[in-house]
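Ticket #396: bound-state structure for 3-phosphoglyceric acid.
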Amino acid sequence: MGWKTLDDMDLNGKRVLVRVDINVPVVDGVVTDATRIQRIVPTVRDILAAGGKPILLAHFGRPGGERRENLSLKQLIPTLTTAFDADVLFAADCVGTEAELAAEQLQPGQVLLLENTRFHAAETKNNTDLAVGMARLGEVYCNDAFSAAHRAHSSTEAIARLLPACAGRLMQAELEALEGALGAPKRPVTAVVGGAKVSTKLELLGNLITKVDYLVIGGGMANTFLVAKGVNVGNSLAETAMKGTAAEIMAKADGAGCTIVLPTDIVVAEKFEAGAPHQILPADQCTDEGMILDAGPDSVAAISEIFDQSQTLIWNGPLGAFEIEPFDAATNASALKAAALTRSGKLVSVAGGGDTVAALNASGAAKDFSYISTAGGAFLEWMEGKTLPGVAALDQ
Ligand code: 3PG
Ligand code: MG
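RESOLUTION: The complex was predicted; output attached.
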């Protein structure tokens, strides 16, 4: 890890350009989940406390290079003001004269928010001229946007090469948590990977089997593995075309000393709806009309036992159709088991991904996990073993 932190930088009296990810959900102008905003507060506070002047660079949604009023960052000012407990000023562009003037006039204790970087088409092309324009606004660059670090954009990559650069507190915490879970973890390490499709998580599975001791596979993707074992899955969601790939993954896992854990019993219904009549069957007994919507109680008991033996857990993806009751049972029970072990100091547990965090929040388990990442795509790419351009650019 060659990156610097805020502690390594001289911040007093300096304008600090902070790349944050405040791409939060907004419904009718109201922020419905401010987690990402709350998680950047330590960085902004620490810069202010050191006498620095934070200038926030961020994207919002995917405006595709056009100025779109509904994707203006202006609407976040009230939420940011409350979160920072400081004055938040605004510049209607992230480069140019108005922004430069606002940056120059910024007073100690104030925060400047710049308009959506993606109003410039150049941003997502990692254009250097745009980065030069942004860099003129500050004297130090701090990247606190781990969840956007899988993007090589002007505000995450090119700019880091133009100013003295460091990681913010959230970036630091994310990298340390992930490094602890997959870099040099305490063993045994268990990964839980769920979700609909094997095809979207191939690289992830390929990397994990070389790193973890147990790989618990759940959700729709487990069905594809059952198909690969010659099991009838009835009407279940499965990618039959991927069964060869699933078989290869199982063979490689064997060679790598990784135990793949598939459901041994299943919850089967004929309709994908809340409360649909269902039965618990052995995993190889799915009916022709049935759909596998969750793992059964024996599978949950086996997962719990593996968690008991593990020291580290990394979780991405639900085990069943967690959005509809009662098919959230395996996800909830396993998540609560992991939470209890974490609480008693026996397990380090890290989770990430939008669906995953929603599922862990719904079960009430999230608050006891060791670390919940703010990242979706970036968390996955990190777990896949990829270099994140926004992190790599901090290595100077
Ligand atoms: C996210 O919400 O996952 C990040 O802000 C990245 O957004 P993007 O997928 O539009 O690049
Ligand atoms: Mg995304």
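RESOLUTION NOTES: DSSP finds 14 helices and 17 strands in the chain.
TICKET STATUS: resolved
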